[in-house]
Amino acid sequence: MVLPDGASSPDILISECGPRDGLQILSQIMPTEAKKRWIAALHAAGLREIEVCSFVPAKLMPQMADAAEIVAFASTLPGLTVLALVPNLRGAEAALAAGAHKLTIPVSGSEEHSLANVRRTRAEMVEEVRRIVDYRNAHAPHVPVEANISVAFGCTIAGPVSEDEVTRLCVSLVEAGVDDSGLSDTTGMGNPVQVKRLFTRVIGEIGEKIGAAHMHNTRGLGLANVLAAYEAGVRIFDSSHAGLGGCPHAPGASGNVVTEDLVFMFEAMGVKTGVDAASLVRSRAILSETLPGAELYGMLAGAGLPKGYRPASPGVMHGQP
Prior knowledge:
The protein has 321 residues and is an alpha/beta fold. It has a single domain (15-295), classed as TIM Barrel (Alpha-Beta Barrel), CATH 3.20.20. Helix content is 41%, strand content 13%. It contains 13 helices and 8 strands. The chain has helices at 18-24, 32-44, 67-74, 89-98, 111-118, 122-139, 163-175, 192-206, 222-232, 259-269, 277-282, 284-290, 300-303, and strands at residues 13-16, 49-54, 81-85, 102-108, 145-150, 181-185, 210-215, 236-239. An 8-stranded parallel sheet has the order 5-4-3-2-1-8-7-6. The chain is globular, with a radius of gyration of 18 Å.
């Protein structure tokens, strides 16, 4: 598990993916200045790793056309690890040139999803990961590289995904030189028993190189699956502010795990996140203002923090959002 500098105090790391995963699926384009205000609000709430963008051609994903400017801005926020998604070596070169602190590479668990998402087979993607790692080693050896397995728990194109193949893929990525490899329920098809079983199996193979649990709430099991991953030993969790997000190649797979609900669950359990859930709820106003019509998810925003709630993280504010 690779934690950013200064993040040793929390018990877990919550990696916010809203500015990338949350925006890529929307037809609206959030103005650059609004993105900056949003990222600053997420940072002010205590989040210390934020996936701020992806480096892909603007003609394919106009929502990410300002990626370099967003990385430059986010890099000014103290103590923040600025994470960028890169699907290939060209994207990695651009991300490192822009000053990204960490790279994340999507590698699909099914061949069908891989061809639809990145137009490469899984074997070709492992080789691309190897090239990215080699480039990182030569030009920015201090920058961590993670590679997470998309559709690890089921694929809307291929159906069930082999746990043997997912495990072998994680091992191959570690052998290719990534700093960690996690599992993503991109389509929201996983269940807690399956999640715990597969994470336990992968941890048995790659140990401390295990990365994030990236869960979607498409079928209402997002937080249950997060807890199953936590019980298996995972300590990094991806989530999205207001539950924005989804995969363009997974129809109906909208709804990442909601960051504010995730923070509340862990803090109520006594697990320190270092993040203020109430602050996250308040900053949803930025999304309502700048993404009119976008559906915002989450239970905490409507119900509020319960009477007598005390967060586990010292210094995290509390009160009714």
